[in-house]
Amino acid sequence: MIRCGLRMVRLLGAALLVAGLGLLAPARAGAAYSFGVVPQFEARELAAIWIPILAELSKRTGLALTMKGSPRIPEFEIAFEAGEFDFAYMNPYHAMIAARKQGYLPLVRDAQPLYGVLAVRKDSPYQAVKDLAGKKISFPAPNAFGASLLMRADLETLFHIKVIPLYAQTHTSSYLNTVLGISEASGGVKGSFDRQKPDLRESLRIIYETRKVPSHPILAHPRVPEAHRDLVKQALLDMAATPEGAALLNKIPMSQPTSASTDEYALMSKLKLDKFYVKSGD
Fold first, then answer.
1. Tell me, what's a Pfam family for it (predicted)?
2. Which of 187, 209, 231 is the last residue of a domain?
3. Measuring CA to CA, which of 125, 179, 235, 252 is 20 to 30 A from 89?
4. Are 140 and 228 in contact, with CB atoms under 8 Å apart?
């Protein structure tokens, strides 16, 4: 009877241990989060960049991170202002707004600064910014930061010229418009310009670079537990230390991930870009 009782105690203990492990495992591995990405490029290209990154982050953290796409930048803006993303990658001005609206917290950014570029066809007669007064310029979207928001501000406040904006939805389409002669110039950022296919990139010539600012951050909504935010942040920094991880991050591009802070993006207000920002739905 005693042996039988001891056996029952052991079995019960084992059952409780298994049940306990079953409850503990989902607490980490079962935590699922959405990850929003600003649609700089067309959907297939974004997916090709980010799905492998999120798979690696999920593997390293034990969290289930799933990309949540937006068809265009305006839809992306509506989503993050409503707090729909648990984690997100967005431009610096969006980061400032996301912090104001929802309390999003920057985790990491590229150490390299962000700046916009203004490109014309290689065989274009335009040599200087002032030559583009009154001309058609393609931009990805009104609030694409370096490519449009900061660029349009520079054109008006630093060069005192007016242009005719054409919004092409993506950086690639913006550059392509210029190559095809639909616009006289296109706004982009150096990172997206360098990512274009050689035949497109080599058909263009950069004639202006904007002021430099902190680059696009990866942020977390404050509802994500601090422990999970820290897991993702550390995993991103660790990825950069391996050849395979660095190759994945370079595609964002985020070649030198470093810690990001809310204060860095709060400084965006000093650029006085509110006049040029188009609110979602306007």
1. Phosphonate-bd
2. 209
3. 179
4. no
